[in-house]
Write a structure and sequence with these properties.
By secondary structure, the protein is mostly helical. It is about 60% helix and about 0% strand. The protein has six helices and no strands. α5 packs antiparallel against α6.
Length: about 170
């Protein structure tokens, strides 16, 4: 047996013994639990009885990991899918805008019809009834436009944020 093998440091030279055992040491940035000051109201250790912890873990795995309702429980625990919500929001916004454009087209057609009716004799009961119906329909369309515009403004005010692309 050599003198190095019998030495207490296991045969390492003084230079080898002085080196740290790990090959790279990650620099620390900021406080770590070992270097941060202790919080006076927080205990240094926490003790939990093993039987209580075991029962909670068994229940968690039985219900949430392996249970038949695990998909519903996970869906309820996760926040809504923002991409799907953004798509639905955009579709609803476009639907409202399309209906408003349709109302514009109908109102333009009613306006042109009223303009054509001005050239006809005003004392005809059929012309009067037609004007009344066109005016009533135009009023309905204008009320619908006001409601749709209000919904559109509310919808654009609460526009969901799309998730950031990674």
């Amino acid at each position: 047996m050599t003198a190095d093998a019998a030495s207490p440091d296991g045969g390492k030279s003084a230079a080898q013994a002085a080196r740290p055992s790990s090959t790279t040491a990650a620099p620390t940035t900021g406080p770590t639990p070992a270097t941060s000051p202790p919080t006076p109201d927080h205990p240094r250790t926490v003790q939990v009885r093993q039987d209580l912890l075991h029962a909670c873990l068994i229940q968690f795995f039985t219900e949430r990991i392996f249970g038949p309702e695990r998909h519903a429980l996970l869906a309820a625990a996760l926040p809504g899918n923002t991409t799907a919500a953004a798509r639905q929001h955009d579709a609803e916004t476009e639907k409202l805008r399309q209906r408003i454009r349709h109302i514009d087209t109908a109102e333009d057609a009613h306006t042109r019809e009223i303009e054509h009716l001005t050239a006809l004799p005003a004392d005809s009961p059929a012309i009067t009834a037609l004007r009344t119906r066109i005016y009533a329909r135009f009023t309905e369309l204008e009320h619908e436009r006001a409601q749709l515009t209000t919904r559109l403004h509310a919808l654009t005010a609460q526009a969901p944020t799309a998730p950031a692309d990674c």
